[in-house]
Design goal:
mainly alpha; 93% helix; transmembrane; membrane; transmembrane helix
Length: 46
Amino acid sequence: MAAKLVLILPLLIGLLFFTAGILGAYGSLTIATVFIFLALLAFAAR
Protein backbone atom coordinates (compact mmCIF):
# COMPACT_ATOMS: atom_id res chain seq x y z
CA MET A 1 0.00 0.00 0.00
CA ALA A 2 2.73 2.45 0.98
CA ALA A 3 4.71 1.69 -2.18
CA LYS A 4 1.63 2.37 -4.30
CA LEU A 5 1.08 5.68 -2.51
CA VAL A 6 4.65 6.75 -3.23
CA LEU A 7 4.08 6.03 -6.92
CA ILE A 8 0.68 7.72 -7.06
CA LEU A 9 1.45 10.84 -5.01
CA PRO A 10 3.59 12.61 -7.67
CA LEU A 11 0.80 12.08 -10.20
CA LEU A 12 -1.80 13.41 -7.78
CA ILE A 13 0.32 16.45 -6.94
CA GLY A 14 0.88 17.18 -10.63
CA LEU A 15 -2.85 16.88 -11.28
CA LEU A 16 -3.60 19.14 -8.32
CA PHE A 17 -1.25 21.86 -9.57
CA PHE A 18 -2.75 21.57 -13.06
CA THR A 19 -6.28 21.87 -11.67
CA ALA A 20 -5.23 24.72 -9.39
CA GLY A 21 -3.86 26.61 -12.39
CA ILE A 22 -7.25 26.33 -14.07
CA LEU A 23 -9.35 27.26 -11.05
CA GLY A 24 -7.17 30.08 -9.78
CA ALA A 25 -6.09 31.08 -6.27
CA TYR A 26 -9.36 30.29 -4.47
CA GLY A 27 -9.60 26.89 -6.13
CA SER A 28 -5.99 26.05 -5.34
CA LEU A 29 -6.50 26.88 -1.68
CA THR A 30 -9.56 24.66 -1.54
CA ILE A 31 -7.76 21.82 -3.31
CA ALA A 32 -4.72 22.18 -1.04
CA THR A 33 -6.98 21.99 2.02
CA VAL A 34 -8.73 18.88 0.71
CA PHE A 35 -5.40 17.30 -0.24
CA ILE A 36 -3.91 17.95 3.21
CA PHE A 37 -7.04 16.50 4.83
CA LEU A 38 -6.83 13.38 2.65
CA ALA A 39 -3.10 13.05 3.38
CA LEU A 40 -3.79 13.21 7.12
CA LEU A 41 -6.53 10.59 6.75
CA ALA A 42 -4.21 8.31 4.81
CA PHE A 43 -1.48 8.82 7.43
CA ALA A 44 -3.89 8.08 10.29
CA ALA A 45 -5.29 5.02 8.52
CA ARG A 46 -1.83 3.43 8.21
